[in-house]
Fold these 3 entries.
Entry 1:
Amino acid sequence: MTTDHETSKIEVTLLLEAIYLKYGYDFRNYSSAHIRRRIRRRQELTGMENISAMQHRLLHDEEFFQTVLYDLSINVTEMFRDPAFYLAVREKVVPILATHSFIKVWHAGCSTGEELYSMAILLKEAGLYDRLQLYGTDFNELVLQKAREGIVPAKAIKDYTDNYQRGGGISSFSDYYTAKYERALLAPELKKKILFANHNLVTDQVFGEMQMIVCRNVLIYFSRELQKKVITLFYDSLCRGGILCLGSRESLQFSGLADRFSQLVDGEQIYQKMYE
Ligand SMILES: C[S@@+](CC[C@H](N)C(=O)[O-])C[C@H]1O[C@@H](n2cnc3c(N)ncnc32)[C@H](O)[C@@H]1O
């Protein structure tokens, strides 16, 4: 006989499988304590008897699925995350961006915005600030609200400073924030270059003609089919010769478009759209 606890673990596994099969979002490898807690919390809030009842509802009620998707959505981010990536952007991508008279960069799935503020700093230091527009999108309005504030926890500053330096920063990271008690307010001039907007990568349309698209640590939660759809959206949203940056555990492998891009940097998921 299984205990109640074991039964609820089975139910979580089945729920994640149902989400994957019906909607293509893949949280199956993320059945961590965090995911289980989120699911139980939603079950309690909706007053459902058990997780199987939740599974039934989300299979038949897409609006309810959206609520659960927000609950499960993993928003972890940090400034200059994976410093080697930023170093590669400085060395290999900046010279390409510099050939454009106006530079539009789209960060898709930007969460609370740390990635955008990092890119704003990098491109400012590269001397490209005057001809730059950054766009940050996410489908979660709550994280976007935080992103617009441009505030990070002061306790993260030490790690961010370390990331910034390892990512090739040429100034002092302290130039870019003002610390106040347990919060650090990012320099308002960084915000001037960033527009935040709600955009769902699965259901919404092409997003302008971009010189660079950065979408990191988002596709890992998508099925192959969804990855293909989203990479096609990126392909259509990039100018010829535009740059696509994915996360370290992501690639173009399942997109069917791998031969339309060339890999720009060995060991980094940084690609350039072919000119043809
Ligand atoms: C793990 S965070 C990655 C944040 C940042 N790109 C980074 O690498 O640090 C994933 C983000 O993708 C967003 N996301 C997931 N599915 C999405 C979708 N269909 N459309 C837009 N954003 C999505 C989530 O809301 C979350 O903020």
Entry 2:
Amino acid sequence: MKAAASIRPVAVITGASDGIGAELARVFSRNGHEVVLVARRRDKLEDLANYIESSCGKRPIVVALDLSGPEAIEELSINIAQAGVTVKYLVNNAGFGIFGCVTQLSPDEQLAMLDLNTRALTALTLRFLPEIIVLRGGIMNVASTAAFIPVPGGAVYAATKAYVASFSEALSEELRSSGVKVSCLCPGPVATGFQARAGIKMPDKMPGLLSVDEVARQGYKGLMTSKLIVIPGFANKLMSFIAGIMPRRMSLPAIAANNKKTTRV
Ligand SMILES: NC(=O)c1ccc[n+]([C@@H]2O[C@H](COP(=O)([O-])OP(=O)(O)OC[C@H]3O[C@@H](n4cnc5c(N)ncnc54)[C@H](OP(=O)(O)O)[C@@H]3O)[C@@H](O)[C@H]2O)c1
């Protein structure tokens, strides 16, 4: 009992230097969680840590790390152990997409995307799950509405997100009686650094476009209420539903044609 009282539970948020992850870090902090911010750009993480400390009173732990590196998970574990904290919530948000035909894109970049979006996410989950189970915490995996349909013009990206959704759904069933919350956040388009890295133009008006804070707020609520699949926005829910029932011979050419218009390569 005495040992349990000294545990300092934290929420680890990957990809917290920008976009959805930075906003999720703000939402977790506002709700009283101590957070660990993980991404490569230390300066951006420190800026966010300053903001959270001044607005919420508790300074986040900053770990500047490339999660696609072979030693990354071990390095994060060491940082967490040295800080004397225990992982209660894990938010696997770090990820990126690149769009274009597989033959036109760099093979190395596509494999790096596969590594970060799936391998690192899985390795982090397997590493921290034992302590999350003990603390009856939760895991949020960030996928995408691209998880629900193959995407010609974003083939590897969509396949990584299908993996994330599949893994999350199966994991939630395996953990059903453990008290651990599992949630898969599946945003539609959100204006972040994602588009520049992906090589896509975001049209001025787009159905389902939501603000980053709305997406983070719904993601947090979904995790805390153990909602398995969280698709923010009515238009995104509707499009995901239609994608699921539409014959692929009709949907795939339409998606391919649309991606040709919005992709730069
Ligand atoms: N924006 C959208 O339209 C959209 C839609 C659906 C799903 N998503 C998903 O939402 C998640 C967050 O994306 P976002 O839109 O917020 O994009 P973003 O603004 O580009 O943020 C991506 C985050 O991931 C971090 N990151 C990238 N590579 C990393 C690496 N190797 N190691 C550690 N951290 C890394 C980045 O930080 P550093 O560069 O500092 O490392 C950044 O903090 C992604 O999984 C993305 O697939 C986005």
Entry 3:
Amino acid sequence: MTSHTSTGRKLNFSAGPAVLPECVLEQAAVAVQDLDDTGMSVLEHSHRGAAIDRVFEEATADCRAVGAIPEEFEILFLQGGASMQFAMTPLNFLASGGVADYLDTGSWTSKAIDDARKIGEVHVAWSGREQAYRSIPNPQDICWSSDPSYGWYCTNNTIYGTTWETAPICKAPLIADMSSDIFSRPIDWDRHGMVIAGAQKNIGPAGVTLAILRRDLLDAANPDLPAMLRYAIHAEKGSRYNTPPVFAVYCAGLVFKWILSIGGLQAVESMNRRKSAVIYNAIDSSNGFYTGHADKACRSMMNIPFTTPSAELDTAFLNEAETESMCNLKGHRSVGGIRASIYNAFPEEGCQRLAEFMADFADRHGG
Ligand SMILES: Cc1ncc(COP(=O)(O)O)c(C=O)c1O
């Protein structure tokens, strides 16, 4: 393997599963052999034993500390990915005869809408589909229905590189899909009833999904669902109604400790602003050689999709970048071009390296 980073690892710009902090990988490797000197691997322990009790307790406490999650919110570790939540939330909260409001800012909200429509009535309160999902709505353009059961939006649109700077205000419980930007900055809990996130970007390996929800919503949820689909059951059983993905939860716990060790979400946000600015500057100072997909007002700190002047140059860019150990830069098939995903654990050095490469590539190819 060719590698040119100071740590000997490739620069992994993947949109997910994504780069993890090296210290997390090292600790996880030790625990795969022997968890906390128990003489057994984290993969072998019973999910009901004392060692795994500790894993869940610590991961939950550290998650609460990282996100400054108020006590009235329950923290659940679930399975089925963020996609499972597209069905679970309407099953639990879309009462028969009710309406759920959705803000359609990309493929992931659109998939959530499709699933919710199979369960109940959906009102699309805003859609950016006609504008190729380049933007986020202004508050005055959102057309909430009169009495929704809940509102659903996605804080960061992984494919299009758009982000909500502040959460919308919804009078019903607001549910946020934060799969691709959770814990990249502080969360405004006053505006949210529930947050869900697949782990494989900012939290840990795929296999666990975080659901953080206000306890009063558990009481109001539909009780007539199969057990695995009920948030209340998962809450009652401490996320261990059935056999949970222990290793993924363990790794998530290590990531939470890492975030705390580097100064928490305020520090992480400053770092993410610096990192993304380096790449946006490379786009904006290229005299039009590079074009970003997202409107400037709503640029993401996590995912930066952009194009060169032609599909041929996009391909040349990706091939050359690969030879420099910058991998997984190919844009999502629905947008094309290039996408740099630079989640929390992606090194600052890597953003600098990409920006230098972009300037050099543009110089050589007519920028
Ligand atoms: C914003 C967003 N929501 C949902 C998903 C789906 O996640 P999963 O594959 O965990 O179901 C993704 C995956 O990339 C995503 O980026």
